[in-house]
């Protein structure tokens, strides 16, 4: 199966994400995403770290983070879409960004705490979605030998990139979900 060609707008969106989250892989983003979306052996080859088959995207055991990020975005898609829906107005967007920064500053305490509450015991939707996205992406990145702090930073950079271009995010997630 030949990797699917991404539209120019999707290519630019994936490059934007990679530039913001994993700059060293931004040149490879369209190829990696196309192979991931193609599925099957092409997707499997993205995750192999040794004995990579000839012609794979992992020559000589080189490990790419972007496939793990793609798996995390795919798994966190409902939370990402909820987050984007919660950030519909500029006030919600600013609040969400402030919450991201607050969570980043208190990452270890935030993940240890069982809840973030507001008012009458209702969970703050944007904060809950942010925590879920970070947790899911972090879990995917545990498959790659990275320090905990670096995984956290990558996860927060991904969220920032997702929020910066919400229309592209929705289109990209739709494309990922269509490949499942």
- Strand percentage lies at under 5%
Helical content, roughly? 55-70%
Distance between the termini: 15 Å
Which strand order do you get reading across the main beta sheet? 1-2
Let me know the average pLDDT: 78
General shape: globular
The total of beta strands comes to: 2
**How many helices does DSSP assign?**
10
Low-confidence stretches: 52-59, 110-123
Order of helices and strands: HHHHHHHEEHHH
| Overall radius of gyration | 17 Å
From the helix content, strand content and strand pairing, which structural class follows? mainly alpha
Main beta-sheet strand count, sense and barrel state: 2 strands, antiparallel
Description:
- With 180 residues, the chain is mainly alpha-helical.
- 67% of the residues lie in helices and 2% in strands.
- Strands 1-2 form a two-stranded antiparallel ribbon.
- Helix 2 packs across helix 3 (40-47), helix 5 (77-86) runs antiparallel to helix 8 and helix 8 crosses helix 9.
- It is globular, with a radius of gyration of 17 Å.
- The protein starts with 7 loop residues before the first helix and ends with a helix.
- Residues 52-59 and 110-123 have low confidence and may be disordered.
In short, what is this structure?
The chain is an all-alpha fold and 180 residues long. The chain has helices at 8-21, 29-38, 40-47, 66-75, 77-86, 90-105, 107-112, 125-141, 148-164, 166-178; strands at 117-118, 122-123.
């Amino acid at each position: 199966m030949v990797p699917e060609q991404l539209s120019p707008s999707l290519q630019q969106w994936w490059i934007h994400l990679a530039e913001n989250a994993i700059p060293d892989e931004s040149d490879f983003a369209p190829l990696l995403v196309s192979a991931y979306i193609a599925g099957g052996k092409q997707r499997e080859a993205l995750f192999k770290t040794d004995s990579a088959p000839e012609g794979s995207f992992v020559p000589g055991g080189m490990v790419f983070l972007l496939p793990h990020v793609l798996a995390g975005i795919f798994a966190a898609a409902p939370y990402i879409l909820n987050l984007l829906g919660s950030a519909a107005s500029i006030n919600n967007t600013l609040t969400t960004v402030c919450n991201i920064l607050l969570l980043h500053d208190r990452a270890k305490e935030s993940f240890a705490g069982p809840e973030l509450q507001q008012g009458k015991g209702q969970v703050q939707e944007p904060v809950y979605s942010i925590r879920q996205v970070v947790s899911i992406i972090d879990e995917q990145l545990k498959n790659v030998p990275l320090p905990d702090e670096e995984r956290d930073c990558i996860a927060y950079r991904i969220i920032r990139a997702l929020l910066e271009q919400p229309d592209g995010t929705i289109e990209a997630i739709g494309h990922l979900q269509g490949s499942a």
